[in-house]
Amino acid sequence: LYSLCLDSLSILVDLGGAMSHQRVSHADMCRVIASAPTREYLDAAKAAIQASRSNDEQFTEHAPSLLNEAIKNYNLASRKADLDDANRNALDLQLGKVHTQRAIAEYSQSSCNLELASHHLKFAADHFQAYRKSVGAGVAAPKFNNIASRMIEMCDANVDAPRHRRSLAATLAANLIGGEVSSYEGSRLPRVQLQMYLVEQCWRQSVRILQGETSNITAVFSELERLCISPILEPDEDSLIFAWGRVQQEMTNAATFLSKAKLHLLRAGAESPELSGQLKIALDSKSEQVKFMLQRACCMRKLGLAAHKQRQVFTESDDLDMQGAYDVVDAWREAYAVAESLEQSGMAVDGLEDVQPNPDVELMAVASSLLGNLWATMRFEDKAKQLHINVLRLGMSLDPNSNSIDEPSTVLTSKPWWIKSKKFLETKQREVREAEERERAAALSEIAEDIQALQAARNLCSKPTADDDPRPFLKHIFAKHPPKTAVPTNITDEVDGVEVIKKTTFMKVMSHYHPDKLDSHYHAGAVPRTEKLLFEEIQKSLNSIYEKNYKS
């Protein structure tokens, strides 16, 4: 203090008000300090602090020198003998605050002197600790909580560089209110606030890295598709996969800060129930956000590694390495698992243990779609189909406004993974239908004569002005194509008779010729295709007679 006063008071105001440019002795300086009114020092310090900030709480151009002046005047006032204990305690608190403001002002400078800022923060911590020890933790706690909130506001208003904000907040969290020691017995809640502020800085930095696109996966999906076939030759600052890698580090740091905040909150006890409750709610909400973002970042990294492996195995080698191909499959599955739950990533999740698992449905769909494409490339069509079906199911769960897969909302139709999986399935369904039609046409050509004979028999039944007579058709199928189960004699007798065939009798005949009845007569239901088609044609003719004669 004496050294500071000797340096600062080389120009002294004597008792008569005259200026003296003479370097004075230690004893003369002490007499001048003692003779000056304490209130003048306090008022001068207060005026300097007020002048250091504008109305919007930003520091002025001369803030560092003004705050230095305030510190000098507070130090001079602390030497006055007329200060009682209460005022001396209040002065300790004010010195702690102004030293902290001076550190923030230093961080706000374009050419920040970190050593000087650290110097002021150390003095701030010492004064806060002296205040706490003098008045007790119970009295000091509300003051320190307000100071922490105030420092956060000032930091946001004055420190532009994200790295300086984080450095300042970390130093405040470590040194503010007495130092980071295991035996610390002071207020914990200010440190909770500062750790949460550090979490917020990590979150803001992540949003900046992603340029605000924290939820849009469209561009990432396109980049992954490109990465599957062409490499990134060097670190690309515009690469979203690269950006998400940086976000993973930010969210890992945020989880560490959350862990510290929760520890301080736990040890705060009944320090301030109302503030503790508010901080607990804020911590829980931010923990959920951080865990989801960390999970998404981890999954992005896994997806990028899977795409890189796929390119190496399938495009950078002349010979297909099947073991390598299955390793790629495992890589995509691992990415899917991480999208399903962060706990499956194998990484430590300290600070987020109390957050319930929450699947990232869209990234699960992305992983399924890309793995489905890989299976299709490897000619495992059934596996590819199942994965693309899973993509559509995940999409439907993602958007409740979609009525069905055939009627998706605009949200889903804007997703490339949805569009491509749906197109894949539609193509496969069309191919299956076309193959079935070709196979059916070939089988029908084999039984063309039988079908013509069936049609001829059916035509004999037609009566333009009355009910059709089913006897010609029934006699033909009994003779040429008997059913697998013998027809009871009462039915054959009725068909051979002359009376009108009853509805119940006709329905029993229809039952004997139902195509599904063939399955039980062949091993594993392997009915010959031609026989199945023939019974289907018989059933069609029986249905037409039933519709005209019996249905009404």
Can you put this structure into words, describing what you see?
- This protein is mostly helical and 552 residues long.
- 69% of the residues lie in helices and 1% in strands.
- The chain contains 22 helices and 2 strands.
- It has helices at residues 2-8, 26-35, 38-51, 63-78, 85-107, 114-135, 137-158, 162-175, 189-209, 218-227, 240-268, 273-314, 322-340, 361-377, 381-398, 410-413, 416-446, 448-461, 471-480, 489-496, 503-512, 529-549, and strands spanning 12-13, 19-20.
- The protein has a two-stranded antiparallel ribbon.
- A hairpin with a 5-residue loop joins β1 (12-13) and β2.
- α9 runs parallel beside α12, α12 (273-314) runs antiparallel to α13 and α13 (322-340) packs antiparallel against α14 (361-377).
Outline of this structure?
By secondary structure, this protein is mainly α. Helix content is 69%, strand content 1%.
Number of strands: 2
Largest sheet, order of strands side by side? 1-2
Helix and strand content put the structural class at mainly alpha
**Helical percentage:** 55-70%
Straight-line distance between termini: 113 Å
Shape: elongated
Order of helices and strands: HEEHHHHHHHHHHHHHHHHHHHHH
Integer-rounded radius of gyration: 42 Å
Mean pLDDT: 85
Number of helices: 22
| Poorly predicted runs of 5 or more residues | 1-24, 26-35, 178-182
